[in-house]
Design goal:
- The complex is a heterotrimer of chains A (359), B (266) and C (359).
- Chain A is α/β, with parallel strands linked by helices and 359 residues long.
- Chain A has 10 helices and 13 strands.
- Chain B has a single domain (9-253), classed as Alpha/Beta hydrolase fold, catalytic domain (Rossmann fold, 3-Layer(aba) Sandwich), CATH 3.40.50.1820.
- Chain B is built from 9 helices and 8 strands.
- In chain B, helix 2 packs across helix 3 (101-112).
- Chain C has a single domain, classed as Luciferase-like domain (TIM Barrel, Alpha-Beta Barrel), CATH 3.20.20.30.
- Chain C is built from 10 helices and 13 strands.
- Chain C has helices spanning 30-50, 71-80, 99-112, 139-155, 193-201, 213-229, 251-261, 272-281, 307-321, 338-356, and strands at residues 2-6, 54-57, 86-93, 117-122, 160-163, 168-172, 186-189, 205-209, 239-247, 284-286, 289-291, 303-305, 325-330.
- In chain C, the strands form 3 sheets. Chain C has an 8-stranded parallel beta barrel, surrounded by 8 helices.
- In chain C, helix 1 runs parallel beside helix 10 (338-356), helix 2 packs parallel to helix 3 and helix 9 crosses helix 10 (338-356).
- The chains are: A alpha/beta (359), B alpha/beta (266), C alpha/beta (359).
- Chains in contact: A-B, A-C, B-C.
- At the A-C interface, helix 1, helix 2, helix 3 and strand 6 of A face helix 1, helix 2, helix 3 and strand 6 of C.
Chain lengths: 359, 266, 359
C-alpha cells in the first residue's frame, strides 16, 4: 500500500475570519500567507524523510483553507525543495481551464521534478463551479473533452488542430513533453460512471474520495469491470482513495477529537440561495447511481482511531475497495497551529506505515 | 438609430399628495426604477430590460417639470413617498433599481419595505461616498466628461431649463444627506433583500472603490464592476448592464451560477 | 542601473530540428529537456552569486528554443532554488489567458518568495496569436482589459464580479493576496501608445525591447508625458529595456562572432502564407508611430563588444532611453556553446557590473 500526504498549504485561519465562501481577500494577512507556504515546504520535507510515497495537492480557489489555486505552480516550488518524494497534482480542474495550458504546465513540471509527477484530472467540486463560471450542466462534457485533449497534447507526435464541442484550437504542439513516457501516472478523479469509463478506455488510473468504503467500492468495482471490457487489468496502484484521517495515540482520544470536529465549520460554506440552486443543478453519480452533491459541506472521516485501529481500517479498505494508494488528509480539528498535525504524521510514520507496506 | 425609450408610455399616479409621473414599457415581472440627480432619463439599458420585465421608471417629486418640492426633508421620506407610488401602481411585490442619488432612495425604500422588495439593484449608488464629495455640476460638456466613460460617443441630451435645474439642484442638496449615513447603515446590516451593486470602472462621480462598503454592510450583496463604463453605466454599456441586471433580478444570488452555453459546434 | 538576466532555457537538441514553427513534438528529446532545466538552475546560481539583480523568464509556446510555456511554473522552481535575486516574470501573455488565473498564480508566487517577484504583463508577440487562437484584431483590447482585471483582482478587498467586453466573471476573490502592497512591481510590456497610456494610468512601469536606444527613448518620453498627465513621475527603475547582448573578451572577438552570426536565424519561422496574413492583421506601433510587426525574424544585437565597450553602450543606453533596468539575453555563437554563455556571464559580472551600478 502506498501512502500520499495531502497538503493544503493551509493558512492559519483566525476565528474572526468570515466563513462564507468566497472569503473576501481583505481578511488576508501577509505574515500568515508567507507562513502557509513555508509550512507547506517544511511539511513536504518532513514527510519525505518519514517515508511517505507521495505528497499531493488539490486545486481550490478564493479560500484561505486551501491556498493552492494552481497545483502546478505550488508543485513546482515543492519539486525544487524535495528530492525523491512523488508529487501528485490531484488535480487541475480541467473543466474550467485551458486544457492545452494544463498539458503544458504539467509537462514542464514533470521535467522539472525529474519524473516525479503524478497527475489526477478532475471535474471539480461543486463550489468550484462559481470560480470561473462553469455551467454545471456542461461540467461533465467539458471534463471529458478536456481530458482527451490533454492526453492527446501529451502524446500526439505531430502538431494538430482540435475541433471540439467546447474547445477549439487550430494548432496544438506542446513543448516540452512530459519526461515520463508515454505519460506520467495519470488518474481520472471521480467516482462517476463517466470517470470510470474514461479511465478504463484510456488505460489510466481511477481516483475516488472521501465517501465510506462501500460507496467508493462500487466505483472501483465498476472501473475494474470496464477495464476488463477494454481488455486490461489495473494494478492496485492505479486506484487511489483520498480520505480524511484522524490519528491519535488512542481510540478514545480520536473519538473525542472526532466529536469536536462534527461541530466544526464546513470547508466551503455558501450562501443558502446559492447552495440550494447548486444542489438542484449539480448531477453527480457513483458508478451510475445518483448521489447528492456535497456543496461545500463537512466530509466524513474514513480512518480514525489509535494506530492499531487505523491499521485494521486500512487493511479493510484494501480488501473492500481494492485501492493501492491512500491519499490522506490529516485532520487537525480545533488546533490553531500545526503542532498536532506534525505529531500525527510522525505517529503515522512510526506506528502505521511500517505495518501497511505489505498490504 | 432609434431613440432610447421610444417604446415607453407616460403615466401618472397620485401618491402622498404628489402627482408622480412615470414612464413604463415591457411585460413581465415588475422592475421599478428610481433615477439619479439628473432626473428621469431613459437609456438603451431601459430598452433592453423592457424585453424581460415590466419596467416602470418613476419621476420623483420635484424633478423634471413637476412643481418644486419643498416638502420632502430627507431620503427616508422620499423613499416612503415612492413606496406609496409603487403601491398605487398596483405592485405588491416588486424588484427595485436605483441609480446614483436614486440608489440611496432605493436602499431606504428596501429597508422600509423589505418584504415587498424581491431584488434590489443599485447602479453607481450614492449612499456611501468619499468624504467631501460634491455632486457633479458645470456645463453640459463638463457634465458629460464626469458622467460618461467616453463622452465623445454619447449624444448629449438637450441642456435642462435653468429654472428646472436650479429647483432640482436645491432639492438634491437638501436630500442627498451626509457622505456616510450611520442611520441608514445600521439598517443595512439586517437588510436581507438580495442586492446587486454595480460600478463602472471609469466612474468619475463616485469612485468604484465605494462598492466594497456595500459588500461589508449588506448580508446578501454582490458587487459587479462594469469595465470601461463611467457613472452612467446603462448608457455607456447597455448590453453589459442589462445582462447582469436581468440575470440578477431573475435568479438573485444564484446568478453566480453560470448557465452559459459554450458549445462551439454540436 | 539594475541588471536582469533573461533566462531562455537553451534547449540543445541532439539532432537538427526542422525549421518551421510549430516544430513537431515528435522531435523532443526528454534528456535534453531535463538538461535544459537543470542548466537554468545552474545559471541561476551563477548570476545570483555574480550579483545580477533579477533573473527573468518569458512565456513562449510550442517552441523548442524556449521551453517555458508556463512562466509561473518555472518561476516557482527558480524561486525555490534561490534566496535574494528577484524573479521577473516578463511576462504572462494576458490577452490569451484567464486574467484571474494569472492574478492568482502571481499572487501565489509573491507569497512563496516574499519581496522578490516582479511582473510584466504582455500582449504577446505576433506569432503567439497562433497558440491559443487569439484574434489579432482583439489582442490590444483584451490586453488592456485583462491588465485592469488583474490589478483589480490583486487590490479589491471584497469579492466582485466583472462585466467586461472580453472577460466576464460573476465572482472574483483571489487568495492569497499579493504580499507586496499594493501589488508586486508591475510593468506594461510594449512600446505602443496603448501600453504607455495603460502604464501611466495605473502607475505601472514600462517595458520596451530590442529596438535601438533612440527609438525606445521616444516611447519612454511618450510614457513620461502620459505619467505627467496622471500626476506622477516614473523613476528609472520603472523602465525596463530588454535587449540582446554579445559580450566577448575583446571588441575584436565580439565582432568576429557577430559576423559569423549573420544569416537567417529565425526563432519562430512561420509558413509564408501564415506570416503574410499576420503582417496584414497585426497592428503595432511605437508610441503611436506605426511599425511593422516582427514576425519570427532575427532580433538585432543591441550591446556588442568587449567589457569596456559594453559599459559605454550601457551608459549611452541610459542616457538615450532612460531605462533603469536592462534585461539581457546573452547571445552565444552556436546553440551548443553553453560554456561561452557561462563565460559571458562571468565576464559581465566581474568586468561590467561593477562599472554600471551608478549609472
Amino acid at each position: 500500500m502506498q501512502v500520499s500526504y495531502f497538503e493544503t498549504a493551509r493558512y492559519q485561519v483566525p476565528p474572526s475570519m468570515p466563513a462564507e465562501w468566497p472569503v473576501p481577500p481583505v481578511a488576508y494577512d501577509p505574515e500568515t500567507g508567507a507562513q502557509a507556504y513555508q509550512g507547506m515546504v517544511d511539511r513536504v520535507r518532513h514527510v519525505e524523510e518519514l517515508g511517505f510515497d507521495w505528497v499531493s495537492l488539490s486545486e481550490h480557489h478564493y479560500s484561505p483553507r486551501i491556498l493552492t489555486p494552481n497545483t502546478a505552480v505550488s508543485a513546482s516550488y515543492i519539486a525544487a525543495r524535495s528530492k525523491k518524494i512523488k508529487i501528485a497534482v490531484l488535480g487541475p480542474i480541467v473543466s474550467q481551464s485551458n486544457p492545452v495550458q494544463v498539458a503544458e504546465e504539467l509537462a514542464m513540471l514533470d521535467t522539472l521534478s525529474e519524473g516525479r509527477l503524478v497527475v489526477g484530472l478532475l471535474r471539480g467540486t461543486t463550489n468550484e463551479y462559481l470560480t470561473f463560471d462553469l455551467n454545471p450542466a456542461e461540467a461533465r462534457e467539458r471534463t471529458t473533452e478536456a481530458m482527451e485533449l490533454i492526453l492527446k497534447a501529451w502524446t500526439e507526435p505531430q502538431p494538430f488542430g482540435w475541433q471540439g464541442r467546447h474547445y477549439q484550437f487550430r494548432t496544438v504542439s506542446v513543448w516540452p513533453r512530459p519526461l515520463q513516457q508515454p505519460l506520467p501516472p495519470t488518474y481520472s478523479l471521480g467516482t462517476s460512471r463517466e470517470s470510470c469509463e474514461f479511465a478504463a478506455r484510456h488505460h489510466i488510473g481511477l481516483g475516488v474520495s472521501f465517501a465510506p468504503f462501500p460507496v467508493v467500492a462500487k466505483s472501483t468495482r465498476y472501473y475494474r469491470d470496464e477495464c476488463a471490457r477494454w481488455g486490461w487489468e489495473p494494478a492496485p496502484e492505479q486506484m487511489l482513495y483520498r480520505a480524511n484521517i484522524l490519528l491519535a495515540e488512542t481510540d478514545e482520544e480520536a473519538e473525542e477529537l472526532l466529536e469536536k470536529q462534527r461541530h466544526g465549520t464546513a470547508p466551503f460554506p455558501m450562501r443558502a440561495g446559492v447552495r440550494d440552486a447548486l444542489l438542484k443543478l449539480d448531477q453527480r453519480n457513483v458508478a451510475g447511481e445518483a448521489r447528492a452533491p456535497n456543496v461545500g459541506g463537512v466530509l466524513p472521516t474514513s480512518f480514525y482511531g489509535g494506530p492499531d485501529t487505523v491499521v485494521e481500517q486500512i487493511k479493510r479498505c484494501r480488501e473492500e475497495v481494492g485501492v493501492g494508494v491512500l491519499d490522506l488528509a490529516f485532520q487537525n480539528p480545533g488546533a490553531p497551529d500545526t503542532g498536532r498535525l506534525v505529531h500525527s504524521l510522525e505517529l503515522f510514520a512510526d506506528k502505521v506505515l511500517p505495518r501497511i507496506r505489505g498490504v | 438609430m432609434t431613440q432610447a425609450g421610444e417604446a415607453f408610455r407616460e403615466g401618472h399616479v397620485e401618491a402622498d399628495g404628489f402627482r408622480i409621473r412615470y414612464m413604463a414599457a415591457g411585460a413581465g415581472p415588475p422592475l421599478v426604477h428610481l433615477h439619479g440627480a439628473g432626473g428621469l432619463r431613459l437609456t438603451p439599458g431601459h430598452d433592453l430590460l423592457s424585453r424581460q420585465f415590466r419596467i416602470v421608471a418613476l419621476e420623483m417629486p420635484g424633478f423634471g417639470t413637476s412643481s418644486e418640492n419643498t416638502r420632502t426633508r430627507s431620503q427616508a421620506e422620499l423613499a416612503a413617498t415612492m413606496a406609496e407610488a409603487v403601491d398605487k401602481l398596483g405592485f405588491d411585490k416588486f424588484n427595485l433599481m436605483g441609480t446614483s442619488f436614486g440608489g440611496k432612495t432605493a436602499l431606504w425604500l428596501a429597508a422600509q419595505q423589505p418584504d415587498q422588495v424581491q431584488a434590489l439593484v443599485l447602479e453607481a449608488p450614492a449612499a456611501i461616498r468619499p468624504e467631501g464629495s460634491e455632486p457633479p455640476s458645470g456645463s453640459p460638456e463638463e457634465m458629460a466628461r464626469r458622467l460618461y466613460a467616453h463622452p465623445e460617443r454619447v449624444t448629449l441630451p438637450p441642456p435642462p431649463d435653468p429654472a428646472v435645474r436650479a429647483q432640482t439642484g436645491r432639492l438634491v442638496a437638501r436630500l442627498r444627506g451626509p457622505d456616510r449615513d450611520p442611520d441608514l447603515e445600521v439598517l443595512l446590516a439586517t437588510l436581507a433583500v438580495p442586492t446587486l451593486v454595480l460600478f463602472g470602472t471609469l466612474d468619475r462621480v463616485i469612485p468604484p472603490e465605494m462598492g466594497r462598503h456595500y459588500k461589508t454592510l449588506l448580508p446578501n450583496c454582490n458587487l459587479v464592476l462594469v469595465y470601461d463604463a463611467g457613472h452612467a453605466i446603462s448608457t455607456d454599456r447597455p448590453e453589459a448592464f442589462a445582462e447582469v441586471v436581468g440575470d440578477f433580478v431573475e435568479r438573485r444570488e444564484a446568478f453566480v451560477i453560470s448557465r452559459n452555453e459554450t458549445v462551439i459546434h454540436p | 542601473m539594475k541588471v536582469s538576466y533573461f533566462e531562455t532555457g537553451h534547449y540543445q537538441p541532439p539532432r537538427q530540428l526542422p525549421a518551421r514553427w510549430p516544430v513537431a513534438p515528435d522531435n523532443y528529446d526528454g534528456a535534453a529537456g531535463a538538461r535544459s532545466y537543470s542548466g537554468m538552475v545552474e545559471r541561476l546560481g551563477l548570476v545570483e552569486t555574480l550579483g545580477f539583480d533579477w533573473v527573468s523568464v518569458a512565456e513562449h509556446h510550442y517552441s523548442p528554443h524556449r521551453l517555458t510555456p508556463a512562466p509561473t511554473v518555472s518561476a516557482a522552481y527558480l524561486a525555490a532554488c534561490s534566496r535574494r535575486i528577484k524573479i521577473a516574470v516578463l511576462g504572462p501573455i494576458v490577452s490569451q489567458s484567464n486574467p484571474v488565473q494569472v492574478a492568482e498564480n502571481l499572487a501565489m508566487l509573491d507569497n512563496m518568495m516574499p519581496g522578490r517577484l516582479v511582473v510584466g504583463l504582455l500582449r504577446g508577440v505576433t506569432g503567439e496569436y497562433l497558440t491559443y487562437g487569439l484574434n489579432p484584431q482583439e489582442a490590444r483590447e483584451r490586453t488592456t482589459e485583462a491588465t485592469e482585471l488583474i490589478l483589480k483582482a490583486w487590490t479589491e478587498p471584497q469579492a466582485f464580479g466583472w462585466q467586461g467586453r472580453h472577460f466576464r466573471f460573476r465572482t472574483v476573490s483571489v487568495w492569497p493576496r499579493p504580499m507586496q502592497q499594493p501589488h508586486p512591481p508591475t510593468y506594461a510590456l510594449g512600446a505602443s501608445r496603448e501600453s504607455c497610456a495603460l502604464a501611466a494610468r495605473h502607475q505601472l512601469g514600462l517595458g520596451v525591447a530590442y529596438g535601438p536606444f533612440e527609438v525606445m527613448g521616444r516611447a519612454v518620453r511618450y510614457y513620461r508625458e502620459q505619467c505627467a498627465q496622471y500626476g506622477w513621475q516614473p523613476a528609472p527603475e520603472h523602465i525596463i529595456y530588454r535587449a540582446n547582448i554579445l559580450l566577448a573578451k575583446t571588441d575584436g572577438a565580439a565582432q568576429d562572432l557577430l559576423e559569423a552570426r549573420r544569416g537567417p536565424r529565425d526563432s519562430f519561422p512561420l509558413p509564408a502564407g501564415v506570416r503574410d496574413a499576420l503582417v496584414q492583421l497585426d497592428r503595432r506601433n511605437i508610441a503611436g508611430e506605426t511599425r511593422t510587426p516582427a514576425i519570427g525574424g532575427t532580433l538585432p544585437i543591441n550591446f556588442c563588444g568587449g567589457p569596456d565597450t559594453i559599459v559605454e553602450q550601457i551608459k549611452r543606453c541610459r542616457a538615450e532611453s532612460g531605462a533603469g533596468v536592462i534585461d539581457l539575453m546573452f547571445q552565444i555563437p552556436g546553440a551548443a556553446d553553453l560554456s561561452f554563455l557561462m563565460q559571458s556571464l562571468e565576464l559581465f559580472g566581474k568586468k561590467v557590473l561593477p562599472h554600471i551600478r551608478d549609472v
